Amino acid sequence: MGQGAWLLEHEGQILGERNPFYLLMPDWFLILGILIATFAAIIASQALISGSFTLVGEAIRLNLFPKVKVVFPSHMKGQLYIPSLNLMLWIGCVGIMLHFQESAAMEAAYGLAITVTMLMTTMLLMYYLRLKRYPVFFVAVLFTLYAVIEGAFLAANLLKFMHGGYVTVVVALLIGGLMWIWLEAGKIKSGLIEMVKLPDYQSQLKQLSSDVDFPKYATHLVFLSKARRDDEVEHAVMYSILNKQPKRADVYWFVHVEVTDEPDTMAYYVRTYEEDDLYRIHFKLGFRVPQQITGLLRQAISELVTNNEVHISKSAQKYHTQSDKKRVGDFKFVILKEILTSENDLPFWKQWVLALHLTIKEFTGGPVRWFGLDGSIVETEPVPLIVKPMAHPKLVRLNPPN
After folding, report:
1. What torsion do the CA atoms of 369, 371, 372, 375 make, to the nearest 10 degrees?
2. How does DSSP classify residue 241?
3. What is the pLDDT along the chain (402 residues), one digit of tens a residue?
């Protein structure tokens, strides 16, 4: 408005290359004005960075974004830092600077981004008001008022679409596309995760544990489970232990990690399904606690051994040094990694979505990184992601030729 007032006072004059933003300042104030504008830009950039971290953090919680490392620098859950996103913002800023060369050239892109953000905020506000059952007339009047103003801004910025506004649309499409892929892949995979009851497999696991016909796989065989119920585990886990390659171990552990809303919670409880054979550990970890599951699991099992709640066979302790008072034996973590096979009879776009989903997942790290596992005791086992098995024609058996 200040620039507009200054231009009205100097109507008819030729400004040339001079900018009204600087011309409205007295000469003695110019350097100070530039400093204030610079600090304002820094503050605005900090707001953008913090807002980006918050939005991506919520998108991860809603399964709309790949799981990436999130750091909580304080005891407040709303204050977070995402290193990979910070790197992407830096790359994006450098890319924008190299593309536009000067700030005047990016006015259209900036204006369109701000206008679209305003419109989205208005629509979300209207949706919120309707959820809270505000009168329809009040919501309609409010929406009309904002829509007219912001619609005028949008129309003005769309006229400059080819002068830089397209960059905003391209960036939005890339981010939106990533979120859409993650959401669609989650929907496709949602029907594949079959849970089974742990008690149904107690006797089989106990028999396998003592069956010397199979080579011993590990003292402690550990699987991470997403099952929220204590008496359930993924069918793929049981298939890996019993069918794919029978894995004999002294003790089978199924571990589930729950992240609490408290910052420093470090607790666990244990469900015993078969003494000295089958256990489930449920960790409750605060959002600031590093998920170093290898160390935490050793600590929990050592406590159980010390309290004589778990008895490790003498062969598991045989080669431990006397200084190792815990003597809990060796560990082996098995991580099931999804792979897309040619056995799927899926439409092209679904195969494309799942392929992109798994490719992106490779770049965002896996359970070894997320849960701080010791890579030397982790075995990754591929699991075919079969959404819809391909129908094979019936095979006809022939008599061998004479």
Report:
1. -70
2. I
3. 888 888 898 888 888 777 888 888 888 999 999 999 899 989 988 888 888 999 998 898 888 998 888 888 888 877 889 998 999 999 998 998 898 888 777 888 888 888 988 999 999 999 999 999 899 999 999 999 999 999 998 888 888 888 888 888 898 999 999 999 999 888 887 766 778 898 888 889 989 988 888 888 888 899 999 888 888 898 888 888 888 778 999 899 999 999 888 888 999 999 999 888 899 999 999 988 888 888 899 899 888 888 888 877 655 554 444 444 456 678 889 888 877 776 666 677 877 888 888 888 888 777 888 888 887 888 888 877 665 555 667 788 888 887
DSSP 390: P
- Provide the whole-model pTM: 0.75
DSSP string, 350-371: HHHHHHHHHHHHHHT--HHHHT
Domain ranges of the chain: 18-188, 195-384
Per-residue exposure over 99-108, b if at least 16 CB sit within 10 Å of its own CB, e if not: ebeeeeebeb
Residues with Cβ within 8 Å of 380's Cβ and at least 6 positions away in sequence, in order, are 335, 337, 368
**Measured distance CA(25)–CA(247) in Å, rounded:** 78
What SS3 state is found at 61? helix
